[in-house]
Amino acid sequence: MGDRGIQQGYDVLVIGAGLAGMRAALAAHRQGARVAVMSKVHPVRSHSNAAQGGINAALTDRGDSWEDHAYDTVKGSDWLGDQDAIEVMCQEAGQEIIGLEHMGVIFNRDERGRLGARAFGGQRRARSFFVADITGQAILHVMYEQILKAGVPILEEWFCTDLIVEDGRCVGCVALEIRTGRVEAIPARTVVLATGGLGRVFEPSTNALICTGDGLTLAYRAGAPLMDMEMVQYHPTTLKGSGVLITEGARGEGAYLLNKHGERFMARYAPKMMELASRDVVSRAEMTEILEGRGVDGCVLLDCRHLGEKRIRERLSQIYDIARDYAGVDITREPIPIRPGMHYQMGGIKTDVWGRCWDPTGRWQGVEGLFAAGECACVSVHGANRLGANSLLDTLVFGRRAGETAARWAQERPLPSVNFPHWRQRREEGIRSLLAREVNADSIARIRWEMGTTMDSFLGVFRDREGIERALHTLRGLRERYERVGVRDKGRTFNTALLFALELDFMLECAEAIAISALTRTESRGAHFRRDYPQRDDVHWLKHILLYRNPNGEFPRIAYLPVTITRWPPQERSY
Amino acid sequence: MRVTLKVRRYNPEAPHPRPYWQEYSLEVEQSATVLDALLRIREEVDESLALRCSCRSAICGSCAMRINGQATLACKTRLAAVAGQDGVLTVEPMGNLPVVKDLVVDMAPHWQKVRAVEAWLQPTGPEPEGEYLVPNEAMLHLAEVMNCIMCGACVSDCTVLEVDPTFLGPAALAKAYRFVADPRDGATKERLGKYTAPGGVWDCTRCFACVEVCPKGVAPMERIMALRERAIAAGYTDTYGARHTLAFAELVEHSGRLDELRLPLKTFGYTNVPQLVGLLPVAVRALARRKAPSPFHKPIPGVAAFRRTVRRARQASPTAGKQATGGSR
C-alpha cells in the first residue's frame, strides 16, 4: 500500500500511530501537507490504548484554572519540568479536550450533560475527563476514525530502522515492511517521531510488548540528544508477575492501599493526599512497606470493596475484568495484591514546545527537520515525575504542535539531493548479515530478559552508585552477546524473530542511556531516588541532563541545560 | 500442568507452501494463558512461530486467533480452561481472512469495511463553542459498543462472511451502530440507507456466533438488530430484509402461523418475476420431498384472541409499534 507515496516521499512522515502520531498527522494534514503515518502495528493496536483513567484539563467554566493545573504539574515534576512548556500544555488543554469531544469521543457526563471529571493523584482538584476506564482506547479509536476521514495514508506494519540524516538535517527514513520483509528508503521533508515509550527495557513493565524505545534510539543515533533519561516512573499499582496495570482511577474513585496489618500506610508518608499523592511518593512508600516486612508476598493490597458493586461496574469495569482474568480476584469481594512496576519514561528525545529536535537559538545541538512528540519526547512537561492523566494530554497538545510546525517548516524546504538507494542498501545488507549469522546457544529472548531484570533490580524505585555500575557492566556484556547472537528464523515474511533482534538493538541503547543518566544525577528528585544521595539538591541539580551519543559507541557526551522557571520557584514537596 | 498446543502453521516461503499442524508440549503454571504459552514457545523452542501480540491485557486486540476452533484473544484465555483432559488444545489463525504466516492473518478486508461504513462522526451544523450537551446514559450506552477493540474475532467466526465476503460483517456494523446511536451524529438517515443496502444489516442470519466469541461483550448481532429496527422506523422498508420481516409479522398476525407460500411472494413482490423464477428449483425440491406448503393456508383456532394479544404487545413496545406503522404502508 502507498507505494507511489513511498517513492515520491512526503512533506511530513509521522513514525508511530498512537495518539501523538495520529494527532500530529491530522494537524499536518489540516495544514495542507502531504503526510503519511507509519507504524510497526495497526494504529488501533498502539499502546495509547492502555491509558485507562483519564485526561487532565482545567476547564474555566468549571471553576478550575490552568494555573492550578500547571502548579500541580510543576510540583509533581519535583521542579524539573520546564515551566514554559507546562504553561503551554495546561493552557491548551481545554481546547484540546473540547476538540476531542467534537471529534466524537464519548466522555462520561455530569448530571447536566457536560463533561464529567474524576480525581487523580497529585492534584488538588478533580480535573481528569474520562471514558469509563477505557479513556485511552476510546480516544485512540476516535483519532483513527479521524485519520480515515481525512484519508491520510497509513503505512501499516512498517518498522523504521534508521533516520536518514544529511548535513545535519533529517530527510526521511529507512524502514522494513514486516509482512514482506522488503526494505525501503522513504524521502520526507520532515519526520515526526511518535513511537512511544521504552517500557520493555524493564522486566516486568506495565507496557505493551511493542514499547521498545525505537524512536529514542533512532533520534539518538541520528545525532539528537536524549534528556533526563534517568527519570523512569514506577506505577504504584501493577499486578505481580505480569506487571499488568491497575489504573490510578481506582484510587481516584476512593480505593485504599493496605499493608499486611490492614493499615492505610499512606497516612505515614503523605498524610494530606494519602493514596492520591504523586506516583513516585506512593511507589516508594509501597516499596518501603514491602522491604520492611509489612507486605504480603512481595506486594501490598489495593482495596476497592467499599466502593460498592454498582460503582465498580460502571466506572472500573475493565479493572474488574483484569483482576478477575489475570489475578483471579473479584475486586468487589477481596483486595488485589499489587506492587510498583515500571510504567513510563519521563525522559526522552529533547524537543522544544514546537516539537523541534533542534534549537534555532543554538543553546543545544540537534537535528533539523526532526520532530518528536508523546512519550518518546521530552519537552519537558513531566520533569522528574509525571502526574496521572497528563500523558494523554501531552500526546495531544504536543502531537498537534509538532504536526503543525513540521507542516509549515516543510513547506519552505524542499528536499536536497540525497542518495536514498545507498541508505536502503546499507540497511538491507545489515539485515542480510544478521540473518546469515550462525546460530549459537544464546538467544535474543535471553538477552532481553537479562537486560530487563537487571534494569528492574538496579534502576527501579531505589538506586545507588554500586548498583548502577553493576547494571552498566552487565549491559556491556549483553551488548557483546548481542553482536554474536543469531536469528533462528531465516525467512523474510513476517519474521518476528528478526524484528525482536532489531528492537533489542534499540533497547540496549536506551538501557545504557538510562543507567548513565542515573549515575550522573547525584541527588534524589521525583522518580529518581539515590540511596547514596537521598536529598534533592537544587544548588547543583536544578538542571536537565542531555546525552549525545558517541558515534564510536564509547561513553556519551554529557551536557546540561538549566530548568526554565517562569513563576513557580522550587519549594519543598510534600503531599 | 502439562499442555500440548497443536498449532496450525503456514510458511508462504516454503518450497511447497501448505498449512500443517505442529505440536508443542510444555510445562506451564496453572494461571498461564494461551499467549504465555505461545510466547514461551517462540522464545525457547521455535523463534519462527509468527503471531501478533502486544498488550497482554485484552485491550490492543492483536492476538485474536482460533483456540479449539473458536475465535478469541490468546491473552485472555487461560490454558486450564481450554486444554482437554489430555492437556491438548488447538491453536489456529482466525477464519474468513487470508493467512499471511502461521497465526498472522491479513485484516485488510476488515479495515476496508470499517472505511465503507464511514466510521467517523458526521455532525450537522456548526460545532458548539463548548462540548455537546448529551445525557450520560447515552454515553454509557455507547461505551458498551466503544469497548470494541477491533480484534476481528467476530469477523473470523461470522457464518455469513464464510459464504459471502461482501457482507460488511459484525465488527464494522457494530461500529456503524455507534454513530447511528450517537446523539451528536447528523447523518443517521443516510447511514441507515447505506447499511440496509445489500451486504448490510439484512444479510445477518442471527446465528449468535459473534455475540458468543466477542471477548469484550460488544454483542455485535444485537447492534445489527438495533440497526434493523431503526432503519425500518426511519422508513427503509423497501428492502428484501425489511419486507421479509414485515411480511413475516403481518402473515403471522393474520392467521396465527406463518404462511410459507406467501412469505417469499410478499418479500420479493408478486410481480418480481426474475426473483420468483429463481426460487422455482427450491419449490420443485420441496414438492419432491413433500415439504411444499399448502396453497390453502388456514388460520389457527382462536386466531381472534391471538390477534388481540399481538395488538396489546405492539402497544406495549414502542419500537414494535413503529414496525407496525412501516408494515401498513
Please summarize what this structure is.
The complex is a heterodimer of chains A (575) and B (329). Helices cover 38% and strands 17% of the residues of chain A.
Structure description:
The complex is a heterodimer of chains A (about 575) and B (about 325). By secondary structure, chain A is of the alpha/beta class. Chain A is built from 17 helices and 19 strands. The longest helix of chain A is centred in the last third of the chain and has 25 residues, at about 495-520. Chain A is globular. The model of chain A has no long low-confidence stretch (mean pLDDT about 95). In chain B, about 45% of the residues lie in helices and about 10% in strands. Chain B contains 16 helices and 7 strands. Chain B has a 5-stranded mixed beta sheet. Chain B has a two-stranded antiparallel ribbon with strand order 6-7. At the A-B interface, helix 4, helix 5 and helix 11 of A face helix 1, helix 3 and helix 4 of B.
H-E order of chain B? EEHEEHEEEHHHHHHHHHHHHHH
Radius of gyration of chain A: 22 Å
Question: Helix coverage percent of residues of chain B?
Answer: 40-55%
Name of the top-level CATH class of the largest domain in chain B: Mainly Alpha
Total beta strand runs of chain B:
7
What structural category do the secondary elements of chain A indicate?
A: alpha/beta
Our Rg estimate of chain B from Cα atoms comes to 24 Å
Average of per-residue pLDDT values of chain B? 92
End-to-end Cα distance of chain A, whole Å, is 52 Å
Task: Output the number of helix runs of chain A.
Answer: 17
- Most residues in contact: chain pair: A-B, 63 and 59 residues
Uncertain stretches of 5 or more adjacent residues of chain B = 320-329
Instruction: Let me know the CATH homologous superfamily of the domain at 420-550 in chain A.
Output: Fumarate reductase/succinate dehydrogenase flavoprotein-like, C-terminal domain
